[in-house]
Amino acid sequence: xxxxxxxxxxxxxxxxxxxxxxxxxxxxxxxxxxxxxxxxxxxxxxxxxxxxxxxxxxxxxxxxxxxxxxxxxxxxxxxxxxxxxxxxxxxxxxxxxxxxxxxxxxxxxxxxxxxxxxxxxxxxxxxxxxxxxxxxxxxxxxxxxxxxxxxxxxxxxxxxxxxxxxxxxxxxxxxxxxxxxxxxxxxxxxxxxxxxxxxxxxxxxxxxxxxxxxxxxxxxxxxxxxxxxxxxxxxxxxxxxxxxxxxxxxxxxxxxxxxxxxxxxxxxxxxxxxxxxxxxxxxxxxxxxxxxxxxxxxxxxxxxxxxxxxxxxxxxxxxxxxxxxxxxxxxxxxxxxxxxxxxxxxxxxxxxxxxxxxxxxxxxxxxxxxxxxxxxxxxxxx
Length: 382
Ligand code: SF4
Known about the structure:
single chain; 382 residues; alpha/beta; Hypothetical Protein Ychn, Chain: A; 2 domains; 7-stranded parallel sheet; 3-stranded mixed sheet; 14 helices; 12 strands; 36% helix; binds iron/sulfur cluster
């Protein structure tokens, strides 16, 4: 990525921009011990260990234009049987490390609360078995905003469900309509209000590059999501997936996806907005999978198996550019100090950041060294 394209005012440290999670986001302590009162994943917390159960397209009343969950998740259309799910969960648990907590069974890839009540109960009952025997801490599910109502929440509150993720995608009704979502931004606002009343931990997912959207629109969506005060967010670039309606629009020339550079730069700005609001961004870009790397699955769009890494690398490049003052720029060598965990982000994929800085400032050599005194999102130059 060309450094000349970059803009924005990012300092050498992001800490000054990152506030503590908002007190307004803190919840009353729930009767249900599984529903956390505070932001669930502050930066210093151990990472959760998620056991994903994919329910591709299950419970979907609509067919969103960008979606083909079977291609995205690699899961077969048919739901696994309870016996198969038990085996799947036990297999996953073998890979859990001590430092990963909480352990959650997560229902992804469909519209969980759009399933029939008996199906929801049967899946939650199965997952609850693992909570009861102490192997799993709680359950999370991913669902559409328009499935959140008193009845559906009453149903899941009988089980140790702690976290609900909503596929928000956009807070612009025109963009939502073009995407065939079948719900409005107001549905999302009401859903978040209801979930907060019941003290669920809330994750909101948004997309960039949707038809009818642009950078300003995506940043507005991010701001409205931040204003809702979720516990965490995920940011996904729109990809043209085979056998989706968007693939037809792409082939007919009615839709042009973001380039990888555009996607990374836009998601970077959104990431910084959420960090500034004290909201954790737990994923940027789709989870890498063999199916996604198959060129017959993703036809176009800003896909990269290390999309999040690219975003962080661009942030570090911006910070380095801001940190290099004219006195350093006339030297032949530059040393950049970062936390040991951030070295690869500073260097960029295939040393792209080092190459960019050399080109821009004409350094002969640039060395990146670890400095344990620095936080993971800080750097200094020498
Ligand atoms: S994006 Fe979600 S709601 Fe839309 S069709 Fe796919 S699984 Fe269903």
